[in-house]
# Entry
Amino acid sequence: MRSVSDASHMSPDVTTAGFLPPFEVRVICGPLAVRRALDMVFDRLTPLALDVEEKSTVELVLAEALNNIVEHAYPPPDTTGPIQVSIRHCKDGLHVRLRDRGRAMPDDKRQSGKPDPCEIDLADLPEGGFGWFLIQDLSRDVEYARIDGQNHLSLRIAVAFRQ
Amino acid sequence: MRDFSMELQIKSEAGVCIVSVCETRIDAASALDFKEAVRQGTQDAPAEVVMDLTQVSFIDSSGLGAIVATMKHLAPDRRLILAGLTPPVEKVFRLTRMDSVFRIHLTLEEALRAQCE
# Structure
């Protein structure tokens, strides 16, 4: 049952009919932080009963965004730091915001062209760099900002639509 | 000797090496172990290596990168063939267009049948 206090946190454009209350999960960066954060998020998303296709889209986008934080925001030797994932369920999907206190993301880290491996020799096939491409391909309204020493990445995943 | 957290079953059948990945995820946390475990397990492999991904329900771009690295490592003498991609895994290959680079079979049985023909 959804309590009244849960509903009071929702933004005005969200009705209580069939919507998940907004929630946030927090992890400390580390080798298994991404898996732990995903477990916690999907635990909270259970009431949405996402199908396999939707779940794999959400999991991939979140995993890539979290991997980027682990890899680029908290590189060695400062590999620990907080990561917050906030999710708001709206009519047009899941609005996700990721925040961390690590290093700012350089612009060139967010560049991604469409992969075209057919044109490349086997020996030159890329073994990485697909993360941003997948995030941008599978989500909408992707925005990055550096605010008060924090990285803010917001995006929308178009699943679990409601009337 | 390092104790790899990545569990693989490796056997050779009729001149084909079959690598079954006994994990549900190949992600950033396990990609390095995966690469190293496959590398060690296929040292004496014949020319055809079939990787059965039936049990893998999630890969991210690091996992994909590890599979690409494995294919490059095995080449040019040995060829990596993939089988049993679950829908979430197939999606990553399709979106990055890596499905055009690998030989991919629906099931391990189909992959083995194709090698016999």
Summary: Residues 8-116 of chain B form a domain with the Transcription Regulator spoIIAA fold (CATH 3.30.750.24). The two ends of chain B are 39 Å apart (CA to CA). The interface with chain A takes residues 25, 27-29, 58, 60-62, 64-66, 68-69, 71-72, 75-76, 87-88, 91-92, 95-98, 100-101 of chain B (CB under 8 Å).
